[in-house]
Design brief:
It is a single chain. With 336 residues, the protein is α/β, with parallel strands linked by helices. The protein is built from twelve helices and eight strands. Strands 1-2-4-3-5-6-7-8 form an eight-stranded mixed sheet, sandwiched between helices. The chain is globular and about 45 Å long.
Length: 336
């Protein structure tokens, strides 16, 4: 009798736990703010006041001390669709190797201000240097990913004396997208982005980035993108996000890359064929876009001090998909 009672009690408790869990999951989450209020970062976030085109803004950043300082600083530059929190394993890797690690959210992204004005790579480059000045860092290593690669190129061209090494991780901008994609009005882009669903965005990431990670690993990126829709300031975020897309299109860097004298390492995923705007290109041109590994090799061959490494069976999120190979390449290169 006691056994029957205990079994019934255990079943009731399990049912209660499952029901409670389901109820918790079914409860709508509180929306994030458009500066990702409510979205956790792995290290404390600080704010630096900056002025872009007369607009008072704040640039968010993490500043992580080295475990055993080697006196050197690495700046990590994020991509368009990712908060800088995704650098967490790379921050840990670099910190353990002795580097101070500075991780900004560029203006228009993550926990930084969303400006009313347009985004420009020159402004983002100036902001990045202003952050180094604020932190009293004379020279730094730059490790960049995706859109951050385009910004890294602009920083290297405009401020070559502030860089020691440049690592371009699956950068976009290795080709001039204006040669393939017709210009698209901003309002049309806003309409398209606003109609995108979370499921559609997940498929977009998986398709465009050839992601080799489990589905749950990219869920935080989905949440960072869609949990802000409940914010009353969402239209401001949306316009800034679309402005970043126009910046990629209107401000190419491919023609500047061969001019970079800073020692440069391209780390490419063999399966990464990301090409912003490809769906808008004429069908006959789409297949020519996004040959990123080959483009990196060709550009490195034109540069005075560069090389390209291609990691097999890897997509756009190289440092998350092939962490050990990435660690070996980056630390080996920065150790020169």
């Amino acid at each position: 009798m006691n056994r029957i009672f205990l079994a019934a009690l255990a079943a009731a408790l399990l049912t209660f736990q499952l029901t409670s869990t389901y109820a918790a999951d079914a409860t709508p989450r509180e929306p994030y703010g458009i500066a990702l209020e409510g979205f956790a970062y792995p290290y404390p976030v600080h704010l630096l006041p900056v002025v872009n085109d007369g607009e008072q803004l704040s640039m968010a950043y993490m500043d992580v001390a080295a475990a055993r300082p080697n006196g050197r600083t690495v700046v990590l530059l994020h991509g368009r669709n990712f908060p800088s929190s995704y650098w967490a394993p790379v921050i840990k890797m670099l910190s353990e190797a002795g580097f101070r690690v500075v991780v900004p959210d560029q203006v228009g992204f993550g926990k930084s201000s969303k400006p009313a004005g347009e985004l420009h790579f020159d402004n983002l480059a100036r902001n990045t240097i202003a952050l180094l000045d604020h932190l009293k860092v004379d020279k730094a290593e730059i490790v960049a990913h995706s859109l951050g690669g385009m910004l890294g190129v602009r920083v290297a061209r405009a401020y070559p004396d502030r860089l020691v090494h440049l690592v371009l991780t699956a950068p976009i901008g290795l080709e001039d997208y204006r040669l393939y994609v017709p210009p698209t009005p901003t309002e049309k882009m806003i309409e398209t982005e606003d109609k995108l669903t979370a499921d559609g965005y997940r498929k977009q990431l998986q398709t465009n980035y050839a992601i080799k990670l489990p589905a749950e690993a990219i869920t935080p990126f989905i949440e960072a993108r869609f949990n802000i829709k409940g914010s009353p300031d969402y239209p401001r975020w949306l316009r800034a996000f679309v402005s970043s897309g126009q910046m990629i299109y209107r401000e190419p860097v491919a023609h500047e890359i061969p001019l970079i004298a800073t020692p440069t390492l391209f780390i490419m995923g063999a399966d990464d064929h990301n090409a912003p705007g490809r769906p808008l290109a004429p069908e006959a041109l789409r297949a020519k876009m996004g040959q990123n590994a080959e483009l990196a090799k060709q550009l490195a061959a034109k540069m005075p001090n560069a090389r390209a490494e291609v990691i097999p069976d890897t997509g756009h999120l190289v440092f998350l998909e092939a962490p050990e190979t990435y660690k070996e390449l980056v630390l080996g290169f920065l150790g020169r």
